[in-house]
Amino acid sequence: MNIVRTSLFLFLILASTSCQPKNKSDKPETVQKAEENALAEVKLTAEQLKGYETAYFASGCFWCVEAIFESVKGVKEVYSGYSGGTEKNPTYKEVSYGKTTHAEAVEVYYDPKIISFAQLVQVFFGSHDPTSLNRQGPDRGAQYRSIAFYKNEAEKKIITDYIAQLEAENVYDRPIVTEVKKFDKFYRAEEYHQDYEKRNPDNSYIRNVSIPRLNRFKENFKSYLKEDTH
C-alpha cells in the first residue's frame, strides 16, 4: 500500500507540473519586464556569436534542454525557440498547446575546436528518451517530440550513424523514434523563456523535472561539462 501511495504522490506531482503557459510567471508585469530587459543584456549579440557554429535539437521542454546544453564545454550560447514546423512566427501559447506543427527546440552556438557536432549529438541522445513518441517526462504532444536537425549531408550522416550504433549496441529496449530532419528555420522564443531554469529555480516544474533531468545528464557526462558546472 505504501508503494501505491508513493507512486500516486509522484504521479500527482508530475501531473501538476508541465512546460505550459500556466507556469509562465506569477510576478507583476513590471517586475517581469525588468527581468526580461536585464536578460536581453546578458545574452550575447549576433556580432559576439560570429565565428561559432550552430546546431539545433528538440527533446522535450526547452527549459530543460537549454540548461543541459548550456552546461556543456565549448557551448557559448543557447536559445530556446521553435522549429520543425511550417507556421511563421509561432508563439509559446500556440506551440505549447499543439496548435502548430513546430516543436520546442534549442539553438546551440558552439566552438567546434572544443566540442564537435558528433559530441553534441551524443549529448542530445544521452539527455532524453529518444524512444518516447511525442512525450518527454510529464509533457505530451508532438510539440515535445524528439528531433535531431541537420544542416548538411555530413551532419545527417553523423546523426544516422550514431542512431545505428545505439541500435546495434541495444542501448534501448524500444525503437528510437527521433526524427532526423533537415533544418529550415528557428524562431526564438519569447524573452522570458531564455535561461528560464536559472532565473526560476523555485518554479515547481524546474524543481521536479528540469533540475533532476539536468543532474542525471551531469552524472553521465562528467567529461563534457564546463568547469563551473561540475
TrEMBL record:
Residues 54-205 form the Peptide methionine sulphoxide reductase MsrA domain. Residues 1-21 form the signal peptide. It is an enzyme of class 1 (oxidoreductase). It comes from Flagellimonas hadalis. It catalyses: [thioredoxin]-disulfide + L-methionine + H2O = L-methionine (S)-S-oxide + [thioredoxin]-dithiol; L-methionyl-[protein] + [thioredoxin]-disulfide + H2O = L-methionyl-(S)-S-oxide-[protein] + [thioredoxin]-dithiol. The keyword Signal applies. Has an important function as a repair enzyme for proteins that have been inactivated by oxidation. Catalyzes the reversible oxidation-reduction of methionine sulfoxide in proteins to methionine. This is Peptide methionine sulfoxide reductase MsrA. GO terms for molecular function: L-methionine:thioredoxin-disulfide S-oxidoreductase activity; peptide-methionine (S)-S-oxide reductase activity. The gene is msrA. Keywords: Oxidoreductase, Signal.
